[in-house]
Amino acid sequence: MLMKNTDLSGRIVRYGELQPCRTAFIDAHTPGSDQKENFTIIGGGVSESPDQHVHIDIPHGFNIGAAGQPPKCRNSLHSHRTAEVFFVLSGRWRFFWGLHGTAGEVVLEEGDIFNIPTGIFRGFENVGTDYGMIMAILGGDDAGGGVIWAPQVIQEADAHGLVLSEEGKLYDTKKGESLPEGVGKMPLLTEEELKAFPEPSAAEVIPDFVARYWDIAAMAHEAPVKVIGETGLLRDRPGFEVDLVTRDSATETPEQFDRPTVLMPFRGHWRVTWDGGSTVLAPGDTMSVPEELDHAVVPAMSGESALYRVIGTQDPAGPTRAD
C-alpha cells in the first residue's frame, strides 16, 4: 500500500508535453508516410530509432503509445505478435489490412476503438481534414519483440535511404550511416512465411474487433463498460483490459486495482484524487496509477465526459484469444 502524499507527477504525461519522433520506423522517408509523428508514452514500445523518447519507463505489462498524422498521411503495412489496440483521440481514420491492404478496411471516428487481430498485416491513414491523433495499447512489456513489416515496405524504404538491420535497428544512408560489419539487412518474409498471415474480410473483423464510441457510451449509465476483456464487448485476453468510463458511470468512491492502471481521457476534463494529492486530466493526457493506490476519477467540468481505462491482467501477452 502506498503512503499518504504520494507524488504521482512522474506518472502523468500531458498532451502538450508529448515528445514526437519523426524517424521511429522504416517508412519515415517513404512518400505518403514521411510526415507522421510517433509517441512512446509508457514502456519501450516498438520504435526502431534511438531518437524515440520514452516518457514513462515503468513496466506495466503493456505499452501505451500514439501516432499523430496530418491528412492523407499513412502508416505502412505491418504486423505484431501481441495485441495492438487503437482508439481515436481526434480526427477520422481509415484502417486497412492484408498483405497489400486490400483484404478489408474500416473507418473510425473519435472514441471508436479497434482491437486489431494479431497476425495480420495492418496499416492506417488519416482521412480527416486536420491533424489527427490515435492512441495505442500494445501487449507485453516488450510489445512482442518489434514490428514485422510487409516485404514491399522494406523494399520501398530501402529505395528512400532507410535500411533495417536484422537486429531491428534503422540506419539512414542519407546521413552516411551503414550497417555495421557482420550485420545483415532484415530478411524479407518468404512466400511460404507469408502464408501464415491471414486475409480476413471486413465482415469477419468488424463485428468482433471494432466498438463504436456512441454504442459503448449508451451502455455506460450505471457502471463502466468493459470494452476489451474476457467478458468484454470485444472478447479477448491480451494481457490487459479496457473499460470506458463516462460521466454517468464515474464514482466518487475511491477504488484500487492490484495491477497498474492507465487513465486516458478523450472527452472532457477529469479530476483524479488520492490520499494527499489530486490532478486534473484533459483529453490526450495519460496517467499511470500505481497498483493498490486508492483513487477516485470524476468529471471536473460539466458537459460530455469519457475516458478509457486500461488495467493490466495476469494473462500473458500473445495472439488474439477471442472465443
TrEMBL record:
Any Pfam family the entry gives: Cupin_2
Coiled coil start-end: none
Domain of life: Bacteria
Domain Cupin type-2 positions: 71-134
Name used for this protein in its record: Cupin domain-containing protein
